[in-house]
Design the sequence.
């Protein structure tokens, strides 16, 4: 088969994929760029897309300026036309995602000040965007092909200064000191951010994308619903050239280094031995995927198609932390995606996108002898399903030379299902570290017939419907941008623990006389207890988010641009019955920016930005507050272990025998479904962040540029569930309403709470809301604070077909008394419902937060030795996060500030009991220990390297790239236990020991053939 015939066959395959892809047809905002500059008044500037032949023309205004916006990313031929005739030879201009490429032209139609404009090869590229007032990093697929960058959107975002990995227990990224739950991700303008927890997003294969933009601050009013950062990605498109390609990626387990095992043995302050084991040295994983794509014209110059199919195979085998079980995980998933572009004419364009990232993983669990590496009997199987189908379509129309309209509608679907054959028959049983020594003495037997010890039976479906209108209108020195957007986000979710009683059991070591979380005392002679937790919830919940914006980009002078913007958001979270329960309207976000082209030649700019950004309420709040929640704890004495037979596998296991119940059922965490007046603040304010950026950027010469900028962010409020056991009516049983801690909280008061009559009451939570046990002192909660201060230095050398280099250093300080809507200190990721405000002692201290990485160094570079061999490298070095020691009590209070039983429950206090700790609460003596007082975790280094071999045949594009990640095999600790006490004055021996470490070295081989 000759090359041309093969290309046609590939395009036919791609067309079939596209037709299938259009089934879930939807629309979305386009991701584009612009070209602007100065030229002779009255001349016409014509841009022709070199890939599709699409042409745009604009007349230079009387002030000598011009602008062409809403351009698909790529290369264009720019030509000056005067009196119907071309002037000069024209120039090739690269349009980058989300930016404006500045091109100034002289009377002869050529570039002005050629020596100060960045020209790479034959293209003018955007090195200093004098029209932009934001901080962003742009990276295209050509640059990424030269570097050892893992094939994910997250890996691309981590190249940008100020972006660090979040708590590895629940993943995500921190942008500029924000938590992992505050970012937004767009693909071709479609918002694909998880709206349930805001900690993940839908994605597509690396080869599906053309360019990425990572916005770390100062973004336009067009973007909202984020107080962290924005990842803006655009997919590849078809062109007039018929093309195709194959790509194979291999990550064999044989080329991966071994995880280090970690063993910790210690003694608690009460003399009880404790231990923790983290075994991973037997783990292995292999990954392979095959990718095929094709693109070309369906109608030359008018209709273009890009389509892709990718088959992925993941195989993983791993032990649990104790090394007593072995899990074999397998997934074989196929991605499909297609992009259709229709240039209806030079003024009107339609873009259609559809893709699916559905995935399924099946895991089989067996018993395991770690010493002999022998697998035993099958103990169970589980299946998890994720991802979904996504679609977008965008219409862009130009009406005259100065007015552009854009309409879009889009759908983003995800699912999260987890199930097992044992779900109806077996309850889960966990062994706490306090019982670990005795469990080890038993031989670490299986203690449950359920294959999982942590996951629930989950049926979860999310669907986002997006619609928006955007307009641009050029009026002399003003470019007016305005629009509206609307999102309807629906969650259909039910969750329960497996087993007939729908209860999960945890076995703890216990000390007679100790106080349990339900207030009961451990009886004499009882040295082990079982806590059964019953948690059931579910329903269908909807949230709507609507906004409109207005922006004036004003060229005050040819070298000074002002960006004056205003965005107004409206959020409406609804119950399972469709009624509003959190509704916040008219949230005004002013944003003002400037950019000064200091030398008036596009090489040097000073810029700044001041703005406000609002964060919406996630759907997990609807789910937990507006659907009702049964969350009860029951404590039992452990009366031994009973040998049992697994009903699924026939294997033997030891089942805990429940003895006498200790104290009442603790139902204080239950949330009623019928009445939310005591669960939600009637007058709640939205969470927002203010940001100030000042920066400088300059071209040194055609290859080199550098810049420096400073950022200050402050988040002065929070929204979370707050512990309330006192109101103006007097003491009350504990309530957990969601509100703004430190601000007035309005809920429904009743005579049962001590109020004179039923009615609305307002609690000033800065001075009321909590009554200390014993002393009866009434206090409030500390005002929420979070600040981020950073200075960034960056130097860059552009690729010139020989080498490229980028280096950045960022000094930053992230401080406050709350991280945001998640709590990484205690690995608690239920967004907006963490332990920050479970007790006034939890947020008493203002200091370095979990994501505070004081120093960050990021380097990336590529070098082409000859036509066959090239090399790439990346290096990220960052200082460690703070180590905080959390206590469980504080002065003058008989109630605990955190759980005396579990490490993760209840946050913790900044007080450590040092004298009279076992006596009456009034006699206890405490010492204060603030955030970060126990030092810092170690620096981490991640060095990647790659070598690429290219077939030295001009007619054949065949490349093989071998990449090694974490070349030095650094496995430093990245997360530690933060609970210092397990009771007043009783230290936890495992405090400060690691719980997460860097992933070990691994390698990847990528074979690419484009034709």
Sequence:
């Amino acid at each position: 088969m000759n090359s041309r015939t093969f290309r046609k066959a590939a395009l036919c395959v791609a067309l079939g994929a596209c037709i299938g892809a259009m089934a879930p047809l939807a629309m979305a905002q386009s991701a584009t760029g612009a070209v602007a500059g100065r030229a002779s008044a009255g001349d016409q500037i014509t841009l022709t897309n070199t890939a599709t032949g699409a042409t745009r023309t604009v007349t230079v205004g009387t002030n000598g300026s011009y602008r062409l916006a809403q351009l698909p990313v790529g290369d264009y031929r720019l030509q000056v036309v005067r009196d119907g005739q071309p002037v000069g030879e024209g120039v090739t201009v690269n349009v980058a995602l989300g930016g404006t490429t500045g091109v100034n032209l002289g009377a002869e139609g050529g570039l002005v000040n050629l020596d100060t404009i960045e020209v790479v090869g034959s293209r003018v590229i955007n090195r200093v965007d004098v029209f932009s007032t934001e901080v962003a990093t742009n990276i295209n697929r050509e640059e990424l092909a030269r570097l050892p960058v893992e094939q994910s959107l997250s890996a691309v975002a981590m190249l940008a200064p100020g972006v660090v990995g979040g708590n590895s227990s629940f993943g995500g990224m921190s942008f500029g000191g924000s938590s992992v739950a505050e970012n937004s991700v767009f693909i071709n303008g479609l918002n694909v951010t998880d709206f349930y927890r805001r900690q993940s997003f839908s994605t597509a294969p690396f080869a599906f994308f053309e360019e990425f933009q990572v916005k770390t601050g100062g973004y336009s009013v067009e973007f909202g619903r984020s107080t962290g950062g924005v990842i803006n990605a655009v997919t590849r498109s078809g062109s007039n050239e018929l093309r195709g390609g194959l790509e194979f990626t291999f990550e064999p387990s044989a080329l991966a280094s071994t995880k280090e095992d970690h063993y910790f043995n210690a003694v608690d302050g009460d003399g009880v031995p404790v231990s923790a084991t983290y075994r991973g040295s037997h783990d292995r994983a292999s990954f392979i995927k095959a990718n095929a794509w094709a693109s070309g014209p369906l109608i030359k110059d008018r209709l273009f198609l890009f389509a892709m199919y990718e088959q992925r195979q993941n195989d993983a085998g791993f032990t649990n932390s104790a090394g007593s079980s072995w899990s074999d995980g397998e997934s074989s998933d196929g991605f499909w995606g297609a992009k259709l572009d229709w240039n209806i004419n030079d003024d009107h364009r339609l873009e259609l996108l559809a893709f699916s990232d559905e995935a399924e993983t099946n895991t089989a669990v067996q018993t395991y002898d770690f010493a002999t590496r022998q697998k035993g009997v099958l103990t169970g199987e589980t299946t998890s399903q994720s991802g979904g189908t996504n679609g977008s379509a965008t219409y862009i129309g130009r009406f005259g030379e100065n007015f552009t309209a854009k309409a879009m509608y889009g759908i983003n679907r995800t699912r999260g299902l987890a199930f097992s054959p044992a779900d109806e028959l077996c309850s889960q049983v966990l062994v706490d570290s306090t019982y670990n020594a005795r469990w080890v003495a038993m031989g670490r037997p299986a203690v449950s017939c359920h294959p999982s010890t942590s996951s629930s039976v989950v049926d979860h479906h999310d669907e986002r419907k997006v619609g928006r209108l955007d307009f641009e209108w050029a009026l002399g020195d003003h470019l007016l941008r305005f629009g509206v957007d609307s999102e309807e986000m629906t969650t259909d979710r039910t969750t329960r623990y497996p087993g007939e009683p729908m209860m999960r059991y945890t076995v703890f070591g216990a000390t007679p006389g100790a106080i349990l979380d339900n207030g009961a005392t451990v009886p004499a002679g009882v040295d082990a207890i079982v806590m059964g937790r019953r948690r059931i919830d579910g329903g269908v919940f909807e949230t709507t988010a609507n906004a409109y914006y207005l922006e004036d980009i004003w060229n005050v002078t040819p070298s000074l641009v002002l960006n004056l913007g205003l965005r107004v958001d409206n959020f409406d979270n609804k119950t399972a019955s469709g009624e509003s329960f959190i509704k916040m309207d008219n949230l005004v976000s002013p944003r003002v920016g400037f950019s000064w082209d200091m030398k008036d030649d596009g090489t040097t700019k000073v810029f700044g930005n001041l703005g406000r950004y609002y964060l919406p309420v996630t759907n997990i709040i609807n789910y937990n507050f507006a659907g009702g929640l049964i969350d009860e704890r029951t404590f039992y004495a452990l009366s031994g272990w009973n040998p049992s037979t697994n009903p699924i596998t026939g294997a033997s296991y030891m089942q805990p025998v429940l003895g006498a119940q200790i104290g009442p059922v603790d139902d204080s965490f239950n949330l009623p479904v019928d009445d939310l007046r005591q669960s939600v603040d009637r007058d709640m304010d939205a969470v927002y962040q203010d940001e100030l950026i000042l920066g400088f950027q300059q071209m040194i010469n055609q290859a080199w540029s550098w810049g420096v900028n400073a950022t200050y962010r402050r988040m002065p409020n929070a929204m979370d569930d707050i512990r309330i056991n006192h109101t103006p009516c007097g003491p009350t049983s504990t309530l957990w309403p969601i509100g703004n801690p430190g601000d007035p909280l309005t809920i429904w008061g009743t005579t049962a709470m001590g109020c004179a009559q039923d009615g609305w009451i307002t609690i000033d939570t800065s001075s009321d809301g909590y009554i200390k046990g014993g002393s009866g002192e009434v206090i409030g909660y500390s005002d929420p604070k979070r600040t981020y201060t950073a200075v960034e230095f960056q130097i860059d050398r552009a690729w010139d077909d020989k080498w490229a280099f980028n280096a950045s250093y960022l000094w930053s300080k992230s401080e406050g008394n709350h991280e945001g809507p998640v709590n990484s200190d205690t690995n608690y990721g239920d967004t907006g419902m963490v332990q920050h405000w479970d007790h006034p002692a939890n947020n008493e201290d203002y200091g370095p937060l979990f994501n505070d990485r004081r120093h960050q160094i990021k380097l990336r570079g590529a070098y082409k030795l000859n036509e066959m061999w090239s090399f790439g490298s990346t290096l990220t070095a960052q200082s460690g996060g703070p180590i905080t020691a959390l206590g469980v009590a504080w002065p003058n209070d008989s109630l605990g500030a955190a759980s005396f039983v579990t490490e993760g429950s209840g946050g913790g206090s900044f007080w450590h009991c040092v004298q009279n700790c076992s006596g009456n609460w009034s006699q206890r003596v405490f010492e204060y220990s603030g955030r970060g007082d126990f030092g810092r975790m170690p620096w981490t280094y991640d060095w990647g390297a790659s070598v690429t071999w290219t077939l030295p045949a001009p007619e054949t594009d065949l490349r093989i790239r071998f990449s090694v990640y974490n070349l030095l095999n650094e496995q430093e600790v990245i997360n530690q236990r933060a609970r210092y006490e397990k009771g007043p004055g009783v230290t936890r021996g495992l405090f400060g020991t690691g719980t997460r470490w860097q992933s070990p070295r691994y390698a990847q081989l990528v074979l690419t053939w484009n034709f």
In short: The longest strand covers residues 528-557. The helical segments are 3-21, 141-144, 153-157, 436-441, 619-625.
